Predict the structure of Glycosylasparaginase.
Amino acid sequence: MWGIIATWRMAVEGISEASELLENHGDAGAAIETAIRAVEDFEYYKSVGYGGLPNENMEVELDAAFMDGDTFDIGAVAAIKDFANPVSIAKRLSKEKVNCLLVGEGAEKFAHQEGFERKNMLTKRAKIHYKNRVKEVQNQTIKPYAGHDTVGMVCLDMNGKMTSATSTSGLFMKKKGRVGDSPIVGSGFYVDSHVGGASATGLGEDLMKGCISYEIVRLMKEGMHPQAACEKAVNDLEKTLIERRGSAGDLSLIAMNNKGEWGVATNIEGFSFAVATALQKPIVYLTKRVDGKCQHEEASQEWLDNYMKTRMAPLEEK
């Protein structure tokens, strides 16, 4: 059995590539890196890698992480600039016994020394988004989370090895140096090959408050199906945040266990994800929550066409 699951529609091309590797007895580490790099390299996805939306200073700062579920090796980078594939840098860092989480200038120095590709990650399209947002701010209250989607994945190969990884450009117009949940183990990602893995997307400041990816793996270890574990973790954290603070940000989680069974839960409308296993081709699903339970429906071709049309539509400065 093999399988791979990812947040958002934008991951389906990547997991399709990864599926070919997994079908041919490929390694879960190589497969998940391949899948995430495909998202990082596509400039029309404005929340990951090349084309990602910048911070308040019009700089693209990227976060990424990788975890090996066999060894618990972890690597992560945060607020790194001008490197093409942060997930690959994170994966390389997972081989280090110490210094496996690097930020900013330190992460960039390591990446340069290791020969990773330097690249200006700020695209013309992202500059237009930035300039339009600056004009909007002058006239109304900014909504900083618009257009923000982290790509997070969990992967299982035929040898039973599991991995989890994330990549994001973070919140649009964020403060310089801001880091969310994506590169933080236990919050943005977690995996144990003996149990399963999980990954998160949404408002990192709230996702971190529940160490929610670890919590889902813990619940699966206790015997819960991934779907039940995701729903319990999301519902419990949302309830707690509302009770303590009066509100909860966006919380969306994916998970897969070591049997290739998967689950997804969210507290928002319009969440999508992509999954492929030895038993099913790569499919994009749309999720909605009804009375605390999440229902998954395969996305229509019309929805898929509109998704790409919207993201690749011509963009003009206002």
User: Anything to note?
Assistant: Residues 3-311 form a domain with the Glutamine Phosphoribosylpyrophosphate, subunit 1, domain 1 fold (CATH 3.60.20.30). The longest strand covers residues 280-290.
